[in-house]
Amino acid sequence: MKNKKAYLGSLLLLLLSVSACQKDEADPVAPTPTPAPPTVPAFDINSITDTYAGVAPLTSAPFWGPYNVHDPAIIKADDYYYCYSTDVGYGISDAALIPGIQVRRSKDLIKWEFVGWAFKEAPAMGTTFIRQNGGTPNRLLWAPYVLKVNNEYRLYYSLASNVFKLSVIGLATSTSPQGPWTEKGIVVSSSNTTTPMTNAIDPTVLVDQQGQHRMYYGSAFDGIHMLKLDATTGLAQTANDKGVRVAERGYTGGQINGNIEAPEIIYNKEQKKYYLFISYDWLLTKYNVRVGRADSPDGPFLDFNGQDINLAQDNGPMILAPYQFSGHGGWQGTAHCGVFEDNGQYYMAHQGRPGVDPYFMDLHVRKIFWTPSGWPVVSPERYAGEDNSTVAQADILGEWEQITLNYRVVPGYEREQTSPDFQTSVPLQLAADGSFNGAAANTWTYSAPWLDLKWSNGNTAKVYVQKGRDWENKKATIVFSGLTTTGVAVWGKKK
């Protein structure tokens, strides 16, 4: 009897154990679900605005994108375009700004990502040089330029001071477009002397067809200078050399017509010419871009009329200037350009200041087109990834806005050039019968992509027709850009 009770007890324990095991197998503990990654909203080009007060503060730097950009220099590295620019910020005092050259990158030239600063502070070599020469260096760096030589990236920077004309252009190098950067030396300097000398800021570098490196630089005072560099080091070929002047401005009544600065130099192998882009006038208002060309990197660089731009006169063509389409506040301060090429297409980058508040600074990138006579012209609208397919003749008929980039000389600088002198749009209507603006004596012909306009007063223009984006009205459109026979730029945007 006792054995039977023991047996039954053991059997009961076994059944309970099996039952517990079966329950464990039937009701396993559910794993913690892995949260889905957050959905990143698709980029909307319409999110790019003219003003950006909401993200202007320094604490919002990760969201600056195309904002707070001044004096851009752009280079393509692998899948990205990198943009280096002056230390500036809307509504931020110089004392609060972070020094070191702002860096951005983009895969499409439209959506820009703020990367940070090239340096953690103003480079030691530049600041030391200025202090040794009796000045206090600025905290902030201006007007960089970048190029790649073999496997080395070379970043040139501008550092000015509290002493009139005491400035330096320095060089730092890296194996990556994002740094870290190592200082290599001072390339060229300027000082407060009575000797004619341009300000040592605003560098651009050319490697010519023979492999010689040259720097073009300067602002105000004594025009734009060209300095030969050592191709191996990126520094001046001859120590303490200032180079030679290659461009200057004209005078009215004994007063200079305005600033001349911010050169950019390229070689176009299709045109077999060197092109020197230069900025005229005050950066906040009338800032505009001129261009000269030469068969040699040493010059002489000639203007549209074949005149040497190193004479005491103003030169054209002026291919970019403050402008205003209908219903918009306009863009001023449109200069200090960076010009670069990718797969045969040339682009111009520059800052634009909205007319509603010109202390905002936006990055603009525009396509460059080349006229049959070999002059560059820029699109009247910023690049938006538009396709390059031919525009049919039927699509150009109808109402347009036309802007002619005329120019008015206002001698002086900041105190005198207080107006942006906007070039505003006027109506243009292309009729199917080959006339425009309702006058039979105004005629047009079209052989894609070139549109020829002939006004009854004898003026003519050949303009390049291209698909584009109407940034003012946030829609697709058609644009044109070209020059008159006298070298005046003419723009158009279809309504």
Strand order of the largest sheet: 27-25-33-32-31-30-29-28
CATH architecture of the largest domain: 5 Propeller
Report the sheet with the most strands, covering strand number, pairing sense and barrel closure. 8 strands, antiparallel
Q: Helicity, in percent? A: under 10%
What is the CATH class name of the largest domain?
Mainly Beta
Question: Could you walk me through the main structural features you see in this protein, from its secondary elements to its overall organization?
Answer:
- There is one protein chain.
- The chain starts with a helix and ends with a strand.
- The chain folds into two domains: 68-372, Tachylectin-2, Chain A (5 Propeller); 393-494, Beta Barrel (Lipocalin).
- The protein has helices at 2-26, 124-132, 393-396, and strands at residues 73-77, 80-85, 102-106, 113-117, 142-149, 152-159, 167-174, 182-190, 204-207, 213-217, 224-229, 244-247, 251-252, 255-256, 260-268, 273-280, 288-294, 318-320, 323-324, 331-332, 338-342, 345-354, 362-370, 376-378, 398-404, 423-424, 426-430, 435-436, 439-447, 450-454, 460-470, 475-484, 489-494.
- Mean pLDDT is 93; it is low at 1-28.
- The strands form eight sheets. An eight-stranded antiparallel β-sheet has the order 27-25-33-32-31-30-29-28.
- The protein has 495 residues and is mainly beta.
- It has three helices and 33 strands.
Q: Any descriptors?
A:
disordered N terminus; Lipocalin; 33 strands; Tachylectin-2, Chain A; mainly beta; 5-stranded antiparallel beta sheet; 3 helices
